[in-house]
């Protein structure tokens, strides 16, 4: 299957030895803010390099899952990707960013990502993995969807909830009382439809793009993770570009971040309305009891993956 605009191989030359064509992969569909941000990034790279570098976008897991994309960047078969919590499988301190209730709100998240600590995390990632962090993009807060009314942690007992295969997420939901079932996002709809799982958690726009409103009755506003997606680049690819092209890529990543961040909040509001229009009941909850239950997980992972980083984040509250 060939997607429109996705016909060239990675780093191929397009009838012109002066043009380098690079591939960018992500797991969302073409209507999502990630894809629109990717299109803006590709447009800006083309403009800033006077056409010497072209970026082609492969949405909907065309180049594989998040893990596949990271591994591809490590060996140079993927040039760019948008990846979030799965990076904790490659550089463990990212696990702290995925802890439920690590960030109290959007401002707290931004103060970390766009400060010195966020820059240091990206520098450490490059050294550890060979994958270069270009920019952090904001995503909507993760919310719970279920087929059972959940108003407190006690209501989570026995609920089979899909989580990403991320330690902090699995342990966090276990501590809150649920039964986590890690699986790829592409399997979630059918698993909800057939009863393999009862619930899932994602930003609202992720859920509506996957038509989760067709197979879930409740949206529970847990706001348990204020999260990000990272625009990453294979360092093997980066080193093949000349200095002006490298600078162009970095400038384009920053401008695309600003574009996507504005877009994502509008998208979350629209997605919430889609949920309501589909008959999904929106439930407001007191998050304090959920937060209290995950504190032992915070303490354990902080000791294992970096108490200094944990305290840096915590002190930004």
The secondary structure category is: alpha/beta
CATH class of the largest domain: Alpha Beta
Q: What oligomeric state do the depicted chains represent? A: single chain
Instruction: Indicate the overall shape.
Output: globular
CATH architecture of the largest domain: 3-Layer(aba) Sandwich
The major β-sheet equals: 6 strands, mixed
Radius of gyration: 20 Å
* Count of separate DSSP helical elements: 12
Number of strands: 11
Query: Which bin fits the share of residues in helices?
Result: 40-55%
Q: What is the CATH topology assignment of the largest domain?
A: D-Maltodextrin-Binding Protein, domain 2
Query: What is the strand content?
Result: 15-25%
What's the number of structural domains? 2
Termini Cα gap: 47 Å
Low-confidence stretches: 1-15
- CATH superfamily membership of the largest domain, which one? Bacterial extracellular solute-binding protein, family 7
Largest sheet: spatial strand order: 7-6-8-5-9-11
In N-to-C order, the SSE pattern is EHEHEHHHEEEHEHEHEEHHEHH
Mean pLDDT score, rounded? 93
Overview of this structure, please?
It is built from twelve helices and eleven strands. The chain has helices spanning 33-48, 66-75, 94-97, 106-113, 116-129, 167-176, 188-194, 204-209, 235-240, 243-277, 288-305, 307-315, and strands at 20-25, 53-58, 80-83, 131-138, 142-146, 160-163, 179-182, 199-203, 218-225, 228-234, 281-284. Helix 1 (33-48) links the parallel strand 1 (20-25) and strand 2. It is an alpha/beta fold and 317 residues long. The radius of gyration is 20 Å and the shape is globular. Residues 1-15 have low confidence and may be disordered. The chain has two domains: 20-140 and 227-270, D-Maltodextrin-Binding Protein, domain 2 (3-Layer(aba) Sandwich), CATH 3.40.190.170; 142-226 and 277-315, Bacterial extracellular solute-binding protein, family 7 (D-Maltodextrin-Binding Protein, domain 2), CATH 3.40.190.170. This is TRAP transporter substrate-binding protein. Pfam families: DctP (PF03480). GO terms for molecular function: carbohydrate binding. One of its GO terms (cellular component) is outer membrane-bounded periplasmic space.
């Amino acid at each position: 299957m060939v997607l429109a605009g996705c016909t060239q191989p990675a780093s191929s030359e397009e009838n012109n030895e002066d043009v380098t064509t690079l591939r960018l992969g992500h797991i969302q569909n073409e209507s999502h803010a990630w894809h629109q941000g990717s299109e803006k990034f590709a447009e800006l790279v083309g403009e800033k390099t006077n056409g010497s570098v072209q970026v082609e976008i492969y949405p909907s897991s065309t180049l594989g899952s998040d893990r596949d994309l990271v591994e591809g960047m490590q060996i140079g078969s993927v040039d760019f990707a948008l990846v979030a919590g799965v990076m904790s499988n490659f550089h463990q301190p990212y696990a702290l960013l995925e802890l439920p209730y690590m960030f109290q709100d959007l401002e707290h998240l931004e103060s970390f990502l766009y400060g010195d600590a966020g820059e240091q995390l990206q520098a450490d990632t490059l050294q550890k993995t060979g994958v270069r962090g270009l920019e952090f993009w904001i995503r909507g807060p993760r919310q719970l969807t279920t087929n059972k009314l959940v108003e407190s942690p006690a209501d989570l007992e026995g609920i089979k909830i899909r989580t990403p295969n991320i330690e902090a997420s699995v342990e966090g939901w276990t501590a809150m009382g649920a039964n986590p079932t890690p699986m790829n996002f592409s399997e979630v709809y059918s698993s909800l439809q057939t009863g393999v799982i009862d619930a899932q958690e994602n930003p609202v726009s992720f859920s509506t793009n996957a038509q989760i409103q067709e197979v879930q009755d409740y949206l529970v506003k847990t706001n348990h993770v204020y999260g990000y997606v990272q625009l990453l680049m294979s360092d093997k690819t980066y080193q093949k570009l000349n200095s002006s092209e490298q600078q162009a890529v970095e400038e384009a990543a920053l401008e695309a971040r600003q574009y996507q961040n504005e877009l994502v909040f509008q998208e979350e509001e629209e997605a919430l309305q889609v949920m309501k229009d589909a008959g999904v009941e929106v439930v407001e909850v007191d998050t304090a009891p959920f937060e209290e239950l995950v504190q032992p997980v915070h303490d354990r992972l902080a000791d294992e993956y970096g108490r200094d980083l944990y305290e840096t984040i915590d002190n930004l509250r």
